Amino acid sequence: MTKDHERFSDRWRRARGSTGVDNKLIGSRAEAVVQARSIQHVSIGAPPGGGSRRPRQLPRDVMFFTDRADELAKLDVLLADRAGDAGGSSEVVISVIAGAGGMGKTSLAVHWAHRVRDRFPDGQLYVNLRGYGPSSPLTPAQALEQFLRALGTADEAIPSDVEAMASSYRSLLADRWMLIVLDNATTAEQVRPLLPNTPTCLVIVTSRSRLSGLVARDGAHRVNLDQLPPAEAVTLLQHIIGAARADTEPQVIRELAHRCAGLPLALRIAAERVADRPHRSLTDLVADLADEQNRMDMLAADDDDTTAVRTVFSWSYRALPVDTARVFRLLGLHPGPTISAPAAAALIDATTKQALRHLDELTAVHLLTEIGRDRYQFHDLVRDYAAEQTKIHESERDRTTILRRSLSWYLHTAYAAQRLVYPHGIEPPPDPPEVDCRPLTFDSRNDAVRWCDQEYPNLTAAVQSAAEHGHHDLAAQLPLSFVNFMDMRARWADVHTMCSTGIASARQPRDTRRELWLSSWAGDSRLFTARFHEAISYYRHTLELARVSADRLGEGGALHLLGMTLNKLHRLDEAADHCERALTVFQQIGNQRGESHTLIELGDILRQQQRFEEALHRLRQALVAAQRTSNQLAEALSRRGLGSVYSDAGQFDNAVEQFRGSIAISRDRDDHFNTARTLQDLGDALSDAGRVDEAHESWREALAIFEVVNAPQATELRARLGSPPPGGSRSR
User: Fold this and answer.
1) Could you write out the DSSP letters of every residue in 530-573?
2) Which end of the chain is more exposed for a tag (fewer CB within 10 A), N or C?
3) Percent of the chain with pLDDT over 90
4) Could you tell me which residue, 651 or 246, shows the higher pLDDT?
């Protein structure tokens, strides 16, 4: 008996009000007399029905168990709490280890049980309840029968009904220090009859289900098991493959861990494949796993189908209700990394309330993870399995219809958001939505911006998915539905990728109007990353498309953007000529937005030519037009331009006033890039005015934003803050 056990036993005796003497007589002879001052336990013969055995049923500990330090610590805390409360509490400590198939729940439970088994000198019980597997789940009666036999009950003494069996079981466990591991449970009802009623016992339950009933009604503590972090996944691979071999290709080992998505079962299978094939390189295995169509085949042990990743997932999938199983399959068609409840509803053609019911059922069995309010995520390998099941059970025609409905939902919801984010956008609207597509609407600009931020990864994935699956009409429209948001967030690399994909799709068949706007935005992505000659190439292509299709608006836009780029190259006369021609086009067609932005550019060109009065005149015209049309972006840019003219003319107080007015508007619009650009200009003006500390504060604010959006201006500002430039040194 360990010292800890002696301490717990002493506390238990004191709590029962005894003086340390606990005399018991167990036997069949009523006339037997036992009298002693300090005898604590006497057994004469065997107790009726058994109970004299001390079972040691734990499976052997798992080889190469890796980390899980946080989860082990949580279990240790439960054990410590139990030790502290054993004298006064009547509640059994129950821990539910919950997680997806292949996540290592049993390994964790068994490993921890071996670590603490000396704290339970009366034995350990273990049963696989077969909640998810090829066989039918074990009934409570079957599990109780196994436990009663393990505790020494003779076959003829085992009761025939569940309640009586459970009563005998609890009686045999009374006051005994035992650890009970109930592995692979499916429901709380399967588990409850197996729970003891003495706090000297501790129960560990593993399940793919959350077993919320045990938590709510029985006070169980849930430990959720997720995928291994990258470092722990690499460590597990190194243990199985062998450090000598693994260390020769460290980058490949990290990639292998990534391909297995941190799933312990997948990691073990992949590592065994390498360990068993000493002449095969890790690079070859990683290449095989890169093919999502082939990955599920690769992650199967050659001689044990029950350990294949596909098989393990199938046990959870087959336990689903029929309608929820179909929802699981259809989610495999979703293009993005996460999915919201409304997006799932659009995918499966249901209401959000109906979708939430299915999503909750999938979350309950850890086929899906809830990562935020009404937002969910697949484990990468579970997504592969869902997609595989979709191909098996859904026709190609149905898959096409479902995917188009989902893509159309993203297209029209994004367009609705963009109209609030930037109401002055002039990009062509999308085609009518697909049948049964019910896109979201938004009550405010803030709601629209929040939705765009949350759905941004899904929107970029939707563009690629549309192109890859041949939905070229949607692939050409999708980038234009959220390009103003990308502009606001200065996501220039994404703008180029999305618009390049859209351009290729717009040519199949030829959609000149959308190709024109995609080409224009692709040029912007190069202009604002200082790749000016590439920008000119895109803008000239835009101008050609506009003239071929007699699109005057497109023509004016291309001329303006060419003027802006030539300005950046300090080819001021050419820049002014292009902007004057653009201004003429916009005035002829009555487009005040284009007129405002072109006047802003002309003002900047005139500033550089030191024609300050003319520059101020043009910029004031732009400001009036912007305010008349409630164009906040144009107003912010007009004020920025005015600030630059005042600064160059040495009127620093006026410059600071205009810059701060521009910054306030950009911040109100949540426009990160223009906020940072104007903060940089404000710092320049303050520096020139000799207000160095204020200048550095403004530059630091600008730098923080530029670094977040990975803008090229960050390099210049880092250098400037490291070694402040002399007054008057600036780059516009």
Assistant:
1) T-HHHHHHHHHHHHHHHHHTT-HHHHHHHHHHHHHHHHHTT-HH
2) N
3) 61
4) 651
* Residues near 49 by beta carbon (within 8 Å), at least 6 away in sequence: 153, 154, 157, 168, 172
- Residue owning tokens 């979703």: 334
Those residues whose C-beta lies under 8 Å from the C-beta of residue 125, and which sit 6 or more positions away, are 55, 57, 147, 150, 151, 178, 179, 180, 181
In the numeric block, the tokens 């600030």 are attached to 643
Angle formed at CA 515 by CA 509 and CA 518, multiple of 5 degrees: 140
Number of other residues whose CB lies within 10 A of the CB of residue 59: 15
Task: Name the DSSP letter for residue 305.
Answer: G
Orientation angle between helical segments 380-393 and 309-318, nearest 10 degrees: 70
For residue 307, what pLDDT band results from cuts at 50, 70 and 90?
Answer: low
Q: Round to whole Å and give the CA distance between 84 and 717.
A: 58
Measured in residues, the chain has a length of 732
**Taking the mean position of all CA atoms in its chain, how far away is CA 12?**
47
- CA-to-CA distance for 15 and 416, rounded, in angstroms? 67
Peptide bond into 159 cis (omega under 30): no
Whether 691 has a pLDDT exceeding 50, the answer reads yes
Strand segments, DSSP code E, in 63-178 are 93-99, 124-128
- 84/511 Cα distance (integer angstroms): 73
Distance between CA 544 and CA 648 in Å, rounded? 37
Please state, in angstroms and rounded to a whole number, the distance separating the CA atoms of residues 337 and 227: 16
Torsion (CA) 704, 707, 709, 712 in degrees, nearest 10: 120
Place of tokens 């291994």: 228
Average pLDDT over residues 690-703: 95
C-alpha span between 425 and 445 (Å, rounded) = 14
Give the Cα separation of 277 and 285 in Å (integer).
Answer: 10
Helix (H, G, I), strand (E, B) or coil at 519: helix
Read off φ and ψ for residue 127, nearest 5 degrees.
Answer: -145, 140
Task: Compute the average pLDDT of residues 472-501.
Answer: 96
C-alpha–C-alpha distance, residues 560 and 591, integer Å: 13
Edge-to-edge order in the sheet of strand 202-207: 124-128, 179-185, 202-207, 93-99, 221-225
Q: Kindly report the backbone phi and psi dihedral angles of residue 649, in degrees, each rounded to the nearest multiple of 5, phi listed first.
A: -85, 0
Helix (H, G, I), strand (E, B) or coil at 655: helix
What is the distance in angstroms between the CA of the first residue and the CA of the last residue of the chain?
80
Convert the pLDDT of each residue in 179-193 to its tens digit.
Answer: 999 999 999 999 999
Question: Can the peptide bond before residue 479 be classed as cis, meaning omega within 30 degrees of 0?
Answer: no
Residue 15, amino acid: A
Maximal CA-CA distance, the chain: 121
How far is 535 from 531, CA to CA, in rounded Å?
Answer: 6
Q: How many of the other CB atoms lie within 10 Å of CB of 431? A: 13
Query: What is the DSSP code string of 573-586?
Result: HHHHHHHHHHHHHH
The CA–CA distances, whole Å, from 714 to 32, 137, 526 equal: 92, 61, 17
Strand partners, 56: 124
42 contacts 27 by C-beta, under 8 angstroms: no
Q: Residue type for 404, please?
A: R
Phi, psi dihedral angles at 273 (to 5 degrees): -60, -40
301, 356 in Cβ contact below 8 A?
Answer: no
| Calpha distance 15→631 (Å, rounded) | 76
Residue 87 pLDDT: 52
Residue 450 tokens read as 């929040």
Distances in Å between the Cα of 83 and the Cα atoms of 197, 198, 215 are 16, 13, 20
- Identify which of 92, 173, 186, 90 has the alpha carbon closest to the alpha carbon of residue 136: 186
- Strand 179-185 versus strand 124-128 pairing type: parallel
What is the model's pLDDT at position 302? 54
Cα 589 to Cα 338, 544, 552, 582: the distances in Å are 44, 19, 8, 11
Q: How many CB atoms lie within 10 A of CB 100?
A: 25
Give the span between the Cα atoms of 503 and 212, in whole angstroms.
Answer: 50
56: tokens are: 């040691």
